Amino acid sequence: MSYKATPYNFCPVCGYPLQTSIIDTLPRRTCPECSYVHWGDFSLGVGGLLWHDGKVLLVQRGHNPGKGMWTIPGGYVDQGESIGTAIVREIQEETGITARPLSIIALRDRPTEKHDTYVIFLMEFMGGNLQAQPEEVSDLGFFTLEECHTLPIPALTLSALQASHSASQGLVLNPDVDLIGPLSTLYQMP
């Protein structure tokens, strides 16, 4: 998906007209009145690999981009929401299944016009019944790895499925480190 950011003309903090300044050798939109700097456009997404009884949970996308493709459930992280909370919410909304994050097993970094980062979690099944969110999901189900190879699946999803099937653990949440900020979380090797 291509995204072309429209440059800011006015400061989102104080409303003063922005100017272009060179910071760290790059042109950046800055405010001469309040010192605001526009560092760029970013998006953060999450996806969840949920294995249950030897099968993985997949959803069929109900809209573009990728309409008809099978992928892991996921979506965007809301401002003020942790990535762990976001993936639990996205899986529940899209599939009706309750799950909890076990570890981070992959990270896709796509620094295009809008810097796009996608964190993939290995999840644990907690309960619930399959129920597709009609606004986003046209179908869903649990599939074996062999069945996944017969479905139209993006390369990123298939690669993460294969890695999760053989990996026991990735980066895990460490709640014992005192971090700055009430929503801060640290994922690290066990």
Describe the model.
The protein has 190 residues and is an alpha+beta fold. It has two domains: 1-39, Single Sheet (Ubiquitin Ligase Nedd4, Chain: W), CATH 2.20.70; 42-173, Alpha-Beta Complex (Nucleoside Triphosphate Pyrophosphohydrolase). It is 15% helix and 39% strand. It has helices at residues 83-95, 145-148, 155-166; strands spanning 19-23, 26-30, 37-38, 42-52, 55-61, 70-71, 74-76, 97-111, 115-128, 137-143, 172-173, 187-188. The longest helix has 13 residues, at 83-95. The chain is globular. The model has no long low-confidence stretch (mean pLDDT 90). Residues 41-165 form the Nudix hydrolase domain. This is ADP-ribose pyrophosphatase. Its cofactor is Mg(2+).
Q: Radius of gyration, Cα only, in angstroms?
A: 19 Å
CATH superfamily of the largest domain: Nucleoside Triphosphate Pyrophosphohydrolase
Residues in helix, % = 10-25%
Q: Let me know the number of strands.
A: 12
Q: Helical region count? A: 3
Cofactor: Mg(2+)
Keywords: Hydrolase, Magnesium
GO molecular function: hydrolase activity
Protein name: ADP-ribose pyrophosphatase
Task: Give a summary of the structure in a few sentences.
The protein is α+β, with helices and mostly antiparallel strands and about 190 residues long.
